Amino acid sequence: MSMVTIQSKLPNLPTTIFSTMTLLANQHAAINLGQGFPDFDMDPILQDLVYKAMKDGNNQYANSNGDPALRKILAEKIGKIYQQSLDPDHEITITPGGTYAISNALTSILRAGDEVILFEPCFDSYIPNIRICGAVPIRIPLNFPDYSIPWEIVREKISDKTRMILINSPHNPTGSILTEDDIASLRKLVEGSNILIMSDEVYEHLVFDKKKHLSILQYPDLFARSFVAFSLGKVFHCTGWKVGYVVAPPFLMKEFRNHHQFNVFSVHSAVQVGMAEYLKNEQVYLQLPALFEKKRDLLLKEMIGTEFHPLESYGSYFQCFTFPEDIQMNSMEYAVFLIKTKGVATIPVSAFYEDGQDNRVLRFCFAKKEETLLEASKRLKQRTTYSKLK
Known about the structure:
single chain; Aspartate Aminotransferase, domain 1; Aspartate Aminotransferase, domain 2; 7-stranded mixed β-sheet; 13 strands; 39% helix; 14% strand; globular
């Protein structure tokens, strides 16, 4: 027997809720509205551009910082949308997805004992990535049911150990978005401090109801202390390609790239070349809000007549619903029950709180074909007797 031992950097880490619910969905042939990925294909034009890039020989290592043409077109896009002038050579790096962009930013800056303020419910990678650096997550619950930020509590939690504030808008899992008041509070809070910002904006183009995404990139004083993460895979329905990017001022980007070059070095060459060509047509991202708002509205309409009550969702892939108190189960139990009895998989929002805070809310992903959403809502409208719910 081997005498080799290790001390885990992430002890007692549970299986991710996405793996758990997807496995159950597969076992019960359930419609998967849990994990955040589309079940429809990407634009065939983008597929053809990437295929052409491969045929043209773009199959070896790309520039470690990302294909120059892609960084250039992204800088132009950011200039048009957010009125922020960027140097694509020193302020943009292409990454293998948004999750990596966040992880690499955290590990390039955080040291043991640093504190990072973040807001729950939150995407499940944040806290492990903070802890693996030896840093300390300072968890603050968002206000329920609108999932707004309690800035008075944030002020109370600031200490001389606060290294970073991590924000996410449009928000996963709730679909809430930052307001101008939020931005004003954040600006006032960090002014004159040494606090950095990590801004997760992977759903930047998926904002609804004539509202606007307020990017950290729009505010020079905030951008001067920020990493901002984006995902091309999320917004262009190709999550499996794992391609995103991070934007940061040069002094932060230097640290990011120092770690990046020894982590992954570079990202899929042909995808970058094809994506650069694709983004020359600004309509490919300007049309996205209408596409996803239509899907959200279809789900909301078809859920009328079920036992679920919708909360506000202004962006992302996700719509949250509460369920009645007389259903005597917690969120996790009820989500499992729905898979097994109605054949629909969701994600309990309690899974996005480290302490399991349960407001009886389930997250539904509406980034699906129309027929998928119609069938899922049809199944959920099937009545279940109260006795079966106990």
